[in-house]
Amino acid sequence: MTTTQFDNLAIVAMQEVLIDVAELTSQAKQAHWNVRGATFLPVHQWLDGLADTLRAHTDTLAERMATLGGWPDASSKTLSERNTLQSLPCGVLTTGEALTAMDAGLGRVAAAAASRLGDPTLDPVTADLLTGLCRDLQKQQWLARAQQ
């Protein structure tokens, strides 16, 4: 009997989280390019660092999926069809709008990742990866809130 990627619940869990982390990465860069306001510079710089942090997590998630025999999918088609985040408005964003949007996205992705942690079929390495992701997302959410 052959095993498909969908037979491994860890891969399924990571795929769903990967989609939202990849989408949030894109939104952080979009906000970085379009943010304006009195606190432009620190928010602009924070958004750039946030995008780097999120990009690193997408890579880690995807590589763990591949290690377990899965095929990570963060294609633009998949992201547009399956992400669960609110869309970021196009055009200029005030620093407040950018921070509010990132706060919401970070909270949503952290909650989704954390909800997977109680699954008894999740292997310890994948659980540790998701725990680290939650820790970083919650820290970044705190940083977003502290700047508002």
Plain-language structure description:
- With 148 residues, this protein is mostly helical.
- The chain has one domain: Ferritin (Up-down Bundle), CATH 1.20.1260.10.
- Helix content is 72%, strand content 3%.
- The chain has five helices and two strands; from the N terminus they run αβααβαα.
- It has helices at 9-34, 40-67, 76-82, 95-116, 124-146, and strands spanning 35-36, 93-94.
- Strands 1-2 form a two-stranded parallel sheet.
- Helix 1 (9-34) packs antiparallel against helix 2 and helix 4 runs antiparallel to helix 5.
- The chain is elongated and about 50 Å long.
- The model has no long low-confidence stretch (mean pLDDT 94).
Spatial order of strands in the largest sheet: 1-2
Gap from first CA to last CA? 54 Å
CATH topology: Ferritin
Name the beta content range. under 5%
Q: Measured on Cα atoms, how large is the radius of gyration?
A: 16 Å
Order of helices and strands, N to C?
HEHHEHH
Q: What's the overall geometry?
A: elongated
CATH superfamily: Ferritin, core subunit, four-helix bundle
The mean pLDDT is: 94
